[in-house]
Amino acid sequence: MTDIQLHDLDSNWSESTDEPLTLHASDDPQAETGSFVIEPGERVPEEGTTSHGGDEVSVILSGEIEVVTEDSHTVGEGTLSVIPAGVEHYSVNHGDEPVKLVYTILGEL
């Protein structure tokens, strides 16, 4: 039997501010899971857009964020978002509270 990895998210939020914190990475299949805090007024990335070689799946645990692709979507607590591989995007926290989320990128980062 294999041991499992457990991560106490409450103890990781401080390390998840300013940059995502990788909690798990795998080479086969290639994937990365982590936690991220996006502060009020923060835009990620600061300028331009980002995209990934694999799908990005995020669960918003608290707060509300605008995710901008060719369209704009406001997502909040209890939402699972899926941004397909290669889609250019950015996010902005227009709210008054930090956004806490857990993400997984399935495939190339």
Task: Give structural notes.
The chain is built from one helix and nine strands; from the N terminus they run αβββββββββ. It is mainly β. Strands 1-2-9-4-7 form a five-stranded antiparallel beta sheet, with no helix packed on it. Strand 1 (21-27) and strand 2 (30-38) form a beta hairpin. It starts with 8 loop residues before the first helix and ends with a strand.
> Judging from the principal axes of the Cα atoms, what is the shape?
globular
Number of distinct helices: 1
Number of beta-strand segments:
9
Mean pLDDT: 95
Distance between the termini: 30 Å
Largest sheet: 5 strands, antiparallel
User: Strand fraction band?
Assistant: over 45%
Assign the CATH topology.
Jelly Rolls
Report helical residue fraction. under 10%
Structural class by SSE content:
mainly beta
> What is the chains' assembly state?
single chain
Overview features:
single chain; 109 residues; mainly beta; Jelly Rolls; five-stranded antiparallel beta sheet; four-stranded antiparallel beta sheet; 1 helix; 47% strand
Provide the fold topology.
Layout: H1 9-12, E1 21-27, E2 30-38, E3 43-44, E4 55-62, E5 64-68, E6 72-76, E7 80-83, E8 90-92, E9 99-106
Antiparallel strand pairs: 1-2, 2-9, 3-8, 4-7, 4-9, 5-6, 5-8
